[in-house]
Design brief:
- This protein is mainly beta and 444 residues long.
- The chain has a single domain, classed as YVTN repeat-like/Quinoprotein amine dehydrogenase (Methylamine Dehydrogenase, Chain H).
- It is built from five helices and 32 strands.
- A hairpin with a 5-residue loop joins strand 20 and strand 21.
- The N terminus is likely disordered.
Length: 444
């Protein structure tokens, strides 16, 4: 396999608080086309190696690609840990792929190369040829940035960071002289040009809540899960909220939540940040390592919640870029369970989607088929194992009506499954050969 070494870009011209530029075709406002089946695309499988504890996924990431026909065949044996290619990352890589599966995008997570964006041409098997151009965003978004690819035809990736949360914006560890008013951090929103491997623009600012909320110690702790609206002029960013005890400065683990919140900014400028609030859901919506908001075929944005006191909800943000609180879809209610948590999920087509969940009273995770229009959900009929966990799951592939995902218990063999989004039926595909402590975390 041919390997190419990196030539690091000089980014001194980008230093500063804000650099804004865009290409004329970056708006992304064209209508989203329905999914089309691609018979010749590659399916890339990713596996996370354990570091200290089984299932921690902190030992790096391996990838291996097969044809779509091979992915569908249960006789295909894939052993990513013995035959795969190691992508750059000290811990679990944050991977995305092009829509046709021909390119793999990666931002290394933590370590000496944390924040380094690179891309690979997918040639099948363990052949991933790295581009000779790379860029490191760590000086702007830290060595552990959260990032996702926008729904704009593989043009743009959005990296996000929230840093230096402190009272009255004082340096961390210092006591502000003024009376307490708020806890805030400095948010970074950064656009990566995925084709040219360069930073297109970035902005840094504080994002305030209401005076009443901030006076009680509420603040935005993390940003992630960004999605572009149908018009292509607004970016919706998910949040993970935190509350501080204003008397002691300590974080509070158990507090009354204020409703699910998202940040809305102009696109592509990232200007005019505002916070929208749902009264239906009360959990966070930033996700963990995968998309948590999707633009639906109907032009609305559908967003999952986590850490929600009443279990996960699917929320709807309308084309006016505000929450539609008339739309109520509770996974607890739809499944007749308690404590349902969506670990990851994937919108497919025509209002159909799949979610990977955990719930009260169960050791393992489950796959759930959802109809967002009817607001119904059911557990997919497939083998489940007590060691099956989805909390680190990252990637799905949508190919027409089918959704491909990797299902492997920690340390045990599993399979690729092909999920029919019209029927909710799962078909077993290629065998995923595992190793002790490891697990497969996505299809790309």
């Amino acid at each position: 396999m041919k390997k190419q070494f990196l030539n690091f870009l000089t980014l001194s011209a980008l230093m500063g608080t804000i650099v804004l530029s865009s290409c004329s075709d970056d708006n992304g406002g064209d209508p989203i086309e329905p999914p089309v089946e691609q018979e010749d695309r590659f399916i890339t499988v990713a596996g996370a190696l354990m570091a200290d504890n089984p299932g921690d996924g902190n030992g790096g990431t391996m990838v291996y690609s097969v044809s779509i026909e091979e992915a569908k065949d249960p006789e295909t044996q894939i052993s990513v840990y013995t035959e795969g290619f190691g992508v750059k990352s000290n811990r679990t890589a944050r991977l995305q792929s092009s829509e046709d599966g021909s390119t793999l995008f990666n931002i290394a997570y933590t370590g000496d190369n944390g924040g380094e964006f690179s891309k690979y041409t997918v040639n099948g098997g363990d052949s991933f040829v790295q581009s000779d151009v790379s860029v490191n965003i760590s000086q702007y978004a830290g060595t552990s940035p959260r990032w996702l690819k926008l729904n704009d035809g593989d043009k743009t990736g959005i990296a996000l960071n929230m840093a230096n949360i402190a009272a009255n914006n004082a340096p961390a560890g210092n006591t502000p002289d003024a009376a307490f008013a708020y806890y805030r951090g400095v948010a970074t929103v950064l656009a990566l040009d995925l084709q040219e491997s360069l930073i297109r623009s970035y902005v840094q600012y504080e994002i305030p809540l209401t005076e009443e909320e901030e006076a009680e110690g509420h603040t935005i702790f993390r940003l992630d899960g960004s999605v572009l609206n149908k018009a292509g002029d607004k970016l919706i960013i998910g949040t993970w909220m935190r509350k501080y005890n204003v008397a002691t400065g300590e974080t509070e683990g158990d507090y009354e939540r204020l409703g699910s919140k998202s940040v809305v900014v102009d696109y592509p400028s990232f200007a005019n940040p505002s916070v929208i609030n749902s009264t239906v859901g009360h959990g966070d919506n930033s996700g963990y390592r995968s998309h948590y908001s999707y633009l639906g075929d109907d032009g609305n944005i559908y967003q999952a919640t986590e850490r929600d006191p009443a279990g996960s909800y699917i929320l709807r943000i309308n084309q006016s870029n505000v929450y539609d609180d008339s739309y109520v879809f509770s996974l607890n209610h739809a499944l007749g369970l308690s404590g349902v948590t969506i670990e990851a999920w994937q919108y497919a087509q025509d209002g159909k989607a799949f979610a990977l969940i955990s719930h009260d009273g169960a050791e393992n995770g489950f796959v759930v088929w959802m109809d967002l229009d009817a607001r119904t959900a059911s557990i997919v009929d497939m083998p489940y194992d007590a060691d099956l966990e989805f909390n680190q799951y990252q990637g799905f592939v949508v190919d027409g009506i089918d959704v491909y995902m990797a299902v492997t218990p920690v340390g045990k063999d599993g399979n690729i499954y092909i999920l029919n989004s019209n029927t909710g039926v799962a078909t077993k595909g290629a065998t995923l050969v595992n190793q002790p402590g490891n697990h497969y975390i996505g299809i790309f």
